[in-house]
Design goal:
Strand content: 5-15%
Low-confidence stretches: none
Bound molecules: flavin-adenine dinucleotide
Largest sheet: 8 strands, parallel, barrel
Shape: globular
Mean pLDDT: 93
Helix content: 40-55%
Number of helices: 12
Length: 285
């Protein structure tokens, strides 16, 4: 099934995310995560693509495994350090495995980046369109992409992606829903009307919080900082508080009319299960 049809179904949709292992001997463990997440009946499951493309085969393997459980898979694909030949081969492999949805991404810049075919996700979108009938999504940033010179330059980049054929956007994680609501107004005023999937990250340990701040640039509101300060030395309490915080964010989003929510579950089926249980009546599952 195409993700765009799920996003437009008028219901509240909650999707989950997995990342592939770095080595084949961890693949069985990752497939077990797929089984546990699939049992929660998410609207779809996205599978990330390793930086530089090193785990590309596992992204396809896990996507296929997700679909074996009757759940729609959304495969991520990045283009920054990858040749056009390799990109076409991954696209064809996805097609062969009946994976109809791709989240087209640039990938993060790092010192190890090899010269790749493209410098922006919009170019990858054009390539995907040439090689199959996929539903294509992209990434967006309620707090602005860290490399954008201004909010309006960031919106220009998004508009290029939407005009290239991006049918929906998933947001970078945010911890303050007001940031997301303001972003939605900016999109409307820029004429970007494709569905937006709100990305919520349950932060369940304090190391994760430090990584998030340095990698994504997402702002941490004072309310969440206090939680992290209070419970960072008590792993069980931090986990419970992180799940409660993400649950509250989701309830507020749904109450405000946001129908499409993505949980950055990060291979933690127990965390995903607790959030899904907390919102089961709210989302009607
Ligand atoms: P782009 O859309 O290319 O945007 C990058 C910058 O360039 C922005 O500042 C934008 O405003 C600007 N821009 C965009 N298009 C143009 C244009 N045509 N001309 C000029 N400027 C332009 N990384 C991974 O390695 N693997 C993953 O699986 C992965 N999944 C992700 C999922 C989500 C939902 C998100 C939000 C991010 C994910 N990332 C992943 C990280 C992502 O690769 C980085 O955030 C990266 O820095 C930007 O990717 P992008 O696709 O948004 O890039």
């Amino acid at each position: 099934m195409k993700v765009i049809d799920i996003l437009n179904n008028g219901k509240v949709n909650v999707s989950c995310e997995l990342f592939p292992p770095k080595a084949w001997d961890k693949l069985e463990g990752a497939k077990q995560v797929v089984r546990e997440i699939s049992k929660l009946n998410p609207s779809f499951v996205s599978v990330t693509y390793g930086a530089g493309g090193g785990t590309s085969d596992y992204t396809v393997d896990l996507g296929r495994e997700v679909q074996n459980f009757g759940v729609t898979a959304l495969a991520h694909l990045t283009c920054l350090s990858t040749s056009e030949e390799k990109l076409i081969s991954v696209i064809n492999n996805l097609k062969k495995n009946n994976i109809e949805n791709i989240l087209a991404l640039r990938g993060d810049r790092g010192e190890e980046n090899l010269p790749g075919a493209y410098s922006h996700a919009s170019e990858l979108i054009e390539l995907i369109k040439k090689h199959g009938d996929f539903c294509i999504g992209g990434a967006c940033y309620p707090e602005c992409h860290p490399e954008s010179s201004s909010v309006s330059a960031d919106l220009d980049g998004l508009k290029i992606k939407a005009d290239s054929g991006c049918e929906f956007f998933t947001t970078q994680m945010f911890f303050d829903n007001n940031v997301f609501y303001k972003f939605m107004y900016r999109l409307l005023s820029a004429g970007i009307t494709v569905p937006i999937v709100a990305g919520v990250m349950p932060v369940t340990n304090s190391n994760q919080l430090n990584r998030i701040v340095s990698l994504s640039g997402s702002g941490i509101p004072l309310r969440f900082k206090s939680i992290a300060d209070k419970f960072s030395n008590d792993p069980a309490a931090m986990k419970q508080a992180g799940i409660a915080y993400a649950t509250e964010q989701i309830i507020d989003l749904v109450a405000s009319g946001v129908n499409n929510i993505h949980i950055y579950t990060m291979n933690k089926p127990d965390v995903a299960a607790q959030i899904m249980a907390n919102i089961s009546d709210i989302i009607g599952k």
